[in-house]
Amino acid sequence: MRKIGIIGLGHIGRLLAHTLVITGKADQLVLIDQDDELAVGLKADLENAQTALMSRTIIIIQDYAALRNADILVTAFGDSQLLQEQQMAELSRNGQTIDQIAPRVRQSGFSGIVFNISDPNEAITAYLQQQLALPPKQVIGIGTTIDTMRMRQAVAKGAQVSSQNVSGFVYGQHNGEKVFAWSTVTVNGQNLEKVINGHHLDQNKLRVNADMDNWYTLKGLGYNASAVVTWTLQIISVILGSGNLTVPLAIYQPQYECYVSFPTLINRHGQGNPILLNLYPVEEAAVKTATSAIQQQIAFLQQGGKEND
């Protein structure tokens, strides 16, 4: 039985729940939010939608005990509108949410995989792992996955090829110290120092173009949802299946003794082995800078996270 929990029913949580039901990817879905009426309404809406489906998903709401035998718990709480005030405005709020939910998740006996979407992703994922007392390999975050895909898309547009022909990763910290690791980027196996399809690709311009996609989304919608949910579904499918996928997730990286976005294999056990690529020295230094920023955020949460209240 495929059982998935979602804590936080904002834009992303609701879209994720909707897509899991419509695609029949979950046999049971546990939905939890601080707003009881929202949870009740979403359950009714999803059950109405199932009248048009051949599949059937059992929907349970506001029941932490039901998480006991869940395979995956997705944490999607937060308020993206706070990002318009300050880049790290969600840190304190989401840290306090973890303090509230973690004891109840622990009490439920949940022992599956936690996939965190909440921001700032690396620090919140680290704090979740600490408060849930689960092995680090079982607590991972979406990290710079979407940043990486935006980067690949920008490169693909510049080279006039499909994004499927582009590889490479963004390391570091989503919505913070992102590290565009150009040393890892190739187009049809060629690095960016080559002339590709007759185009000289300017790395600074590529970065600007990738960041502009995020700006357009936040400016127009006020939040990111479709790309986050689509990639979350991809990762859920890998965890519930038997395959492997390489993506830059928020993981505990022993090399830095901290959570940081880093390319890694994922499988049904959660995090597999990190992918160790040779970075340029300046990129390696930038990852360390990102790690330092994440460590400061974790320390802030450990100390109570009350500074911005």
From TrEMBL:
Domain Lactate/malate dehydrogenase C-terminal spans what residues?
144-204
UniProt domain Lactate/malate dehydrogenase N-terminal: residue ranges: 3-141
Arranged from A to Z, the UniProt key words for this protein are: Oxidoreductase
Superkingdom to which the source organism belongs: Bacteria
Q: Which InterPro entries match?
A: L-lactate/malate_DH (IPR001557), Lactate/malate_DH_C (IPR022383), Lactate/malate_DH_N (IPR001236), Lactate_DH/Glyco_Ohase_4_C (IPR015955), NAD(P)-bd_dom_sf (IPR036291)
- For the keyword Oxidoreductase, the answer is yes
What family does the entry list?
A: Belongs to the LDH/MDH superfamily. LDH family.
Its protein name is NAD(P)-binding domain-containing protein
